[in-house]
Design brief:
Blueprint lengths: L8 E5 L6 H9 L4 E6 L17 H6 L2 E2 L12 H17 L3 E6 L2 H9 L9 H14 L1 H11 L1 H5 L6 H14 L3 H5 L11 E6 L4 H17 L2 H11 L14 H8 L5 H25 L4 E3 L6 H10 L4
């Protein structure tokens, strides 16, 4: 009897350094999966080492999507991700494959599962005005400005979080409405993709931190610094751009400016990655995910294979 797919897709979600790529490659040995990246850093071309992007051999073992689709000078949003992801899932199903959404960008996952609030698209001219004012007065000043127009949003943002402060002020300048009010509106564009969700949550935070430290140190050893040098030569970039806000790239940029030595770079890069993992885990705990597994347990990979096989009858 011909096998039929019972669900639309698998979501394999977890923090950085939990082996998601290797799990997908193992699944590909048993099932006709195609991976749709849920990672806001993997979209950038030529940003390979610092993003832990699958290498050419790994990419050849299984079709991967939403990797290497834009230059570091360009922008890709959660709304674009959701549109692309839904189309890819349908196309993969038509080809007889199983879509596996894999990654750790929780805003993308939230967009896929719950839809998005109707916020305006970015406006470059307004952003330039905000950045110019921030250069003159500093981001804590801009945070105070945000507090006056949108105290609820300002309360959730660190005074030095330039990216989120910029976006909140931009939204207000475009709509004349606080972002908190727009975000509280009912979401009416929820996705129709049915998924089986698997969350990778390490039981040992110490083991996660160890893996993060070893991985970042290895990134430096295999050429992350030179990768950033070449990226800076090829494009007119700044630290305010989304691509250069990726963990590791900002720290290497500052190292190249002479702000600290290589050992400090490794320490700062590892610390920033630990903070990223902490934020990812906080997001994960807020989602009602049924299947939660420890990525460092020997029983996890066989269990994931078993779960994915439940898609097929």
């Amino acid at each position: 009897m011909k096998k039929t797919i019972l669900a639309e897709a698998i979501c394999l979600i977890g923090p950085t350094a939990t082996g998601k790529t290797q799990i997908c490659l193992e699944l590909a040995q048993h099932l006709p999966i195609e991976v749709v990246s849920v990672d806001s850093a993997l979209v950038y071309r030529h940003m390979n080492i610092g993003t832990a992007k699958p290498n050419i051999d790994e990419l050849s073992q299984c079709p991967h999507h939403l990797i290497n689709i834009i230059d570091p000078s360009e922008h890709y949003s959660a709304a674009q991700f959701r549109t692309d992801a839904e189309k890819l899932a349908k196309d993969i199903k038509i080809r007889g494959g199983i879509p596996v959404f894999s990654g750790g960008t929780m805003m993308y996952y939230k967009a896929l599962k719950e839809g998005l609030n109707q916020l305006p698209v970015r406006n470059e001219s307004i952003r330039k005005e905000i950045d110019l004012e921030a250069k003159q007065h500093g981001w804590p000043y801009m945070h105070e400005k945000l507090r006056k127009i949108d105290p609820e949003t300002a309360k959730r943002i660190n005074p030095n979080d330039s990216q989120r402060i910029q976006r909140a002020i931009e939204v207000f300048n475009i709509t004349d409405e606080p972002m908190s009010k727009l975000l509280s509106a009912k979401i009416s564009n929820q996705t129709t993709i049915k998924t089986i969700d698997i969350a990778l949550v390490p039981e040992s935070r110490a083991e996660l931190h160890k893996n993060i430290g070893l991985r970042f140190k290895n990134m430096i050893a295999i050429g992350l610094i030179e990768e950033v040098v070449q990226i800076k030569k090829r494009w007119d970039l700044s630290l305010e751009m989304t691509s250069m806000r990726c963990v590791g790239y900002r720290q290497v940029w500052e190292y190249l400016e002479g702000k600290y030595d290589e050992q400090t770079l490794i320490e700062k890069g590892s610390a920033a990655t630990r903070q990223l993992a902490k934020r990812q885990l906080t997001w994960l705990r807020s989602f009602p995910i049924k299947h939660v597994l420890d990525p460092y347990s020997e029983s996890t990979r066989p269990e994931i294979l078993r779960l994915v096989k439940t898609l097929i009858s």
